[in-house]
């Protein structure tokens, strides 16, 4: 493992990197371990790096789609309520529980 401004250090497991880096930095600077923030950059060889990037992007896209869907559900629930539908009716129309309708109508 390479730490900027220090010699290379060897670790057996990637999970040990954070603790090893904090320890090395603390030894060289007298900064308490709890005050050291680190960022670990992991560089993967191709094609694994591209596959990882695609997977991360797919997760981000799915989250955005879920947020859009949730907004659409809230908008429909509010429109139904404004048109006079009861909570029970909205639940039947949207195929959700009455509790979920309450949540949808309470969310901003």
Basic shape:
elongated
What's the oligomerization state?
A: single chain
Count of all domains:
2
Q: How much is the radius of gyration in Å? A: 25 Å
Distance between the termini: 46 Å
Helical stretch count? 4
Beta-strand segment tally: 0
Helix content: 55-70%
| Biggest sheet character | none
- Mean pLDDT across residues: 91
Percentage of residues in strands = under 5%
Q: Which ranges are low-confidence, i.e. pLDDT below 50, for 5 or more consecutive residues?
A: none
Class computed from helices, strands and strand pairing:
mainly alpha
Give, in order, the helices and strands.
Answer: HHHH
Q: Can you lay out the helices and strands and say which pair or pack?
A:
Elements: H1 17-29, H2 48-82, H3 87-94, H4 98-106
Would you give an account of this structure?
The chain has 108 residues and is mainly α. The chain has helices spanning 17-29, 48-82, 87-94, 98-106. It has two domains: 1-42, no CATH class; 44-108. Helix 3 crosses helix 4. The longest helix has 35 residues, at 48-82.
List keywords for this structure.
108 residues; mainly alpha; 4 helices; elongated
Give a quick rundown of the structure.
The protein has 108 residues and is mainly alpha-helical.
């Amino acid at each position: 493992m390479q730490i900027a401004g220090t010699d290379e250090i060897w670790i057996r497991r990637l999970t040990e990197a954070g603790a090893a880096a904090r320890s090395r930095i603390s030894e060289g600077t007298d900064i308490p371990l709890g005050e050291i923030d680190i960022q670990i950059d992991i560089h993967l060889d191709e094609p694994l790096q591209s596959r990882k990037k695609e997977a991360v992007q797919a997760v981000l896209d799915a989250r955005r789609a879920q947020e859009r869907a949730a907004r659409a559900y809230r908008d429909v629930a509010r429109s139904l309520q404004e048109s006079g539908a009861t909570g029970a009716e909205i639940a039947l129309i949207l195929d959700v529980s009455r509790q979920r309708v309450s949540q949808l109508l309470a969310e901003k």
